[in-house]
Design brief:
alpha/beta; Rossmann fold; 5-stranded parallel sheet; 3-stranded antiparallel sheet; 8 helices; 37% helix; disordered C terminus
Length: 292
């Protein structure tokens, strides 16, 4: 009898396991599947951040480019269209280009005013003018500040420094930079040209005023050019001899060109004007410089 009951219990246990096993295996599978699903949820992708930003800003320039593994297919991201970088090159302009130009400088600029061909240009220049004393100058009843506030120019040419070659270079650079920054702030639409200081002749060189010092000062001024609004041009290519000095036959004192050569200076400036364009309008040449 005991053996009969033992067999009966065994049979009942087997039947119970058989009936209950589908429910047990289903529960195990469901629990395992949910755990696996939780582990495989990817972190927020870059595209999610982009899309969230677009929803808040209303920008629809970027499409949803997330792929199944939660990464971003960069090739499908649509960035806002950007215009090609503008480029500039130096080219020729007729004399009317200088009708809205202002020339600032010392005695060399006085020479352009008196003997040059830019009769419609304005001039703020005097013998002995320096970057460090420009604010104390009063020319034709106007100070420098009054002049640049009274009228808007299309171009401004600056040539100062020959009278300051013997001064501390960094001090002069600081004063010169202040002039350029003031022009940028008050003449917002003007193209600013920094003109390199003219060399002196070999006979006129001294321990202080010499072409090595002039070149160094010019190099400091050249660094102020951003090639967007401010450009550096070097007139010495016109007047230098083979040794890099002011050609002796072009001057009587070794410092200033003779009156007849200021017309050439104006012609050189007319061929050294900034021409701005885009590559689609005019293909960039080897000499074209990209605007950053």
């Amino acid at each position: 009898m005991n053996k009969y009951k033992q067999n009966l219990y065994t049979i009942l246990l087997i039947l119970t396991c058989f009936v209950a096993s589908p429910f047990i295996f289903h529960k195990i599978w469901k629990t395992s599947s949910e755990a696996k699903k939780t582990v495989n949820v990817p972190p927020p992708s870059v595209s999610d951040a982009i899309n969230n930003s677009n929803e808040s800003s209303g920008d629809s320039s970027v499409v949803d480019s997330s792929v199944s593994d939660g990464t971003v297919d960069v090739s499908q991201v649509q960035n806002p269209t950007q215009a090609p970088d503008a480029v500039y090159t130096f080219g020729a302009s007729d004399i009317s280009y200088f009708d809205d130009a202002l020339f600032i400088g010392d005695s060399r600029t006085v020479g352009i005013q008196e003997y040059g061909t830019f009769t419609n240009s304005d001039f703020f220049c005097s013998i002995g003018m320096m970057a460090s004393n420009i604010d104390s100058q009063n020319i034709n009843g106007q100070t420098f500040d009054q002049l640049i506030d009274a009228k808007q120019y299309g171009k401004v040419y600056v040539m100062l420094g020959i009278n300051e070659v013997g001064n501390d270079f960094q001090f002069t650079l600081t004063k010169y930079r202040a002039i350029i920054e003031k022009l940028k702030a008050h003449q917002t639409n003007a193209t600013i040209y920094i003109q390199a200081n003219l060399h002196v002749s070999a006979a006129a060189e001294t321990n202080i005023i010499n072409n090595e010092n002039i070149d160094y000062l010019n190099s400091l001024f050249a660094e102020l050019a951003d090639n967007k609004k401010v450009f550096y041009i070097d007139i010495n290519e016109l007047y230098d001899d083979e040794s890099g000095n002011l050609t002796a036959s072009y001057t009587s004192d070794g410092i200033h060109p003779l009156a007849a050569y200021y017309k050439q200076w104006c012609e050189w400036l007319s061929n050294k004007t900034v021409i701005t364009n885009t590559p689609t309008e005019q293909p960039a040449t080897e000499n074209a410089v990209p605007i950053q």
